[in-house]
Amino acid sequence: MDKLIYFDNNATTPVALKVFKAMEPFYKDEYGNASSIHAKGRPARLAIDKARHAIASLIGASDEDIIFTSGGTESDNIAIKGAVLANSSKGNHIITSKTEHSAVLATCKFMEKNGFTVTYLPVNKYGMVLPDDLKNAITEKTVLVTIMHANNETGTINPIKELAAIAKEKKVLFHTDAVQSFGKLDTDAGNLGVDLLSVSAHKIHGPKGVGALYVKKGVKITPLTHGGHHERKLRAGTENVPGIIGFAKAAELISVDRENKNQALTNLRNRLHNGISEKINNVYLNGHPTQRLPGTLNLSFRYIEGESIMLNLDMQGVCVSTGSACTSGTLEPSHVLTAMGVAVDIAQGSIRFSLSDINTQSEVDYCISILPEIIKRLRAMSPLKK
Ligand SMILES: *Cc1c(COP(=O)(O)O)cnc(C)c1O
After folding, report:
1. Quick one: fold of 17-255?
2. Active site residues
3. CB of 152 closer than 6 A to ligand 1?
4. What gap in Å lies between CA 105 and CA 98, rounded to an integer?
5. From the CB of 203, is ligand 1 less than 6 Å away?
6. Residue 331 has pLDDT above 90, yes or no
7. What is the overall mean pLDDT for the chain?
8. CA of 74, closest atom in ligand 1
9. Any idea where the domains of the chain sit in the sequence?
10. Cα separations (Å) of 220 from 105, 159, 175, 239, 307?
């Protein structure tokens, strides 16, 4: 293959051409500040209003329930810090899960240092939070539950409807990080029953540095940035007009014909999985076999390290990522796989293929054709292989 193959769409996605085209005028002639009332400001305000409506409809929300942010990380921060600060008279207990994205985990750690207590719920072997565990963890002091919709490493989908219903019954706020599921699964906030929901543009072929937070009517949030009256005074700062326009376009494009696209993506992913399993032994799937994002395939190759596989695939033009994060020369297994009970040596041999609508069968077939040789070579050198 002379073209690079990009199988790392859970990390980020290429901006769709139509998205780029939609943004372009707002970098050129339509440079107005949406807060200006004059002839340059008004088109920007109108465009943002339209974009807000597009994002709101994908979440089944009213336009005024959508706050634009700088991305998923900021949305998670505002949701968690903002909600617990606004409700701290009620209690100081937060519930999350062990497999959250660092945007949620690091925020919870920060709150722990600032007088809050956090319960990190376990997951089952597929990476799912069990409703009974949530039921048992809620106390009088619980102010917020934050559990992700779909996991970025394994693609496993949490039973958000059931989990949110439990929180609602106990009158506890429920936030979900829906960055990976937005545009792919049903993220209608009413259907899911959530109070707060985070989304991001660059995971759905939109631009980087823009996202949104859904805040259900009546839910109190303490703002974290102070300044002008932007975004219902919840997020001060001049709006990223081109980014917001691009985000709305991406959201509009990703939702068109979604069921068929998901089916095609699932078939492509399964073709990759089957092709690899037929040619290579000692391969394990990390994540739920079916309750999983259509494009995500996290596999462990026994006896070797994910980093080595990733680097070898990279040399042959295939971009994937590892489940494990390489920290200062020591290979620490992924916190997600560890929480799922995956043995350390198997967790270290994991790589994540994340496909999107732009990937093709010939790319998948090329990957299947080069991987067996890579694995064979690495296993031959492995001290772990007997
Ligand atoms: C990418 C990602 C984020 C962070 O979003 P940014 O827009 O990159 O800040 C948060 N949560 C999940 C699950 C993600 O995959």
Report:
1. Aspartate Aminotransferase; domain 2 (3.40.640)
2. 326
3. yes
4. 8
5. yes
6. no
7. 95
8. 9
9. 5-12+257-381, 17-255
10. 22, 25, 13, 22, 44
pLDDT in the model for residue 126: 98
Which pLDDT belongs to residue 163? 98
* Closest to 148 (Cα-Cα) out of 168, 131, 125, 128: 128
CATH number of 5-12+257-381: 3.90.1150.10
Residue nearest to atom 10 of ligand 1 (CA): 72
**Cβ 81 vs Cβ 107: under 8 Å:** yes
Q: What is the pLDDT of residue 383?
A: 81
Is residue 183 a contact partner of residue 13, using CB atoms and an 8 Å limit? no
CB of 73 sitting under 6 A from ligand 1: yes
Residue closest by Cα to atom 6 of ligand 1: 72
69 and 213 in contact (C-beta within 8 Å)? yes
Atom of ligand 1 nearest to the CA of 200: 7
Distance CA 291, CA 126 (A): 9
**284, containing H or E segment:** strand 283-286
Q: What share of the chain is helix, strand, coil (3-state, %, to 5)?
A: 40, 20, 40
Residue 327 has pLDDT above 90, yes or no: no
Please tell me the distance from the alpha carbon of residue 287 to that of residue 123, in angstroms, as a whole number: 11
pTM over 0.85: yes
For ligand 1, the distance from its centroid to the CA atom of residue 73, given in whole angstroms, is: 6
Q: Which tens digits make up the pLDDT trace of 113-160?
A: 999 999 999 999 999 999 999 999 999 999 999 999 999 999 999 999
Q: What is the pLDDT of residue 382?
A: 86
State the distance from the centre of ligand 1 to the C-alpha of 250, rounded, in angstroms.
Answer: 16
CA of 203 to the centre of ligand 1 (A): 8
Rounded CA separation 301/286 (Å): 11
Question: Which of 158, 166, 141, 142 minimizes the C-alpha distance to 98?
Answer: 158
Atom of ligand 1 nearest to the CA of 208: 7
Q: How far is the CA of 382 from the centre of ligand 1 (A)?
A: 34
What is the position in ligand 1's atom list of the atom closest to the CA of 73?
Answer: 9
What mean pLDDT do residues 324-334 have?
A: 65
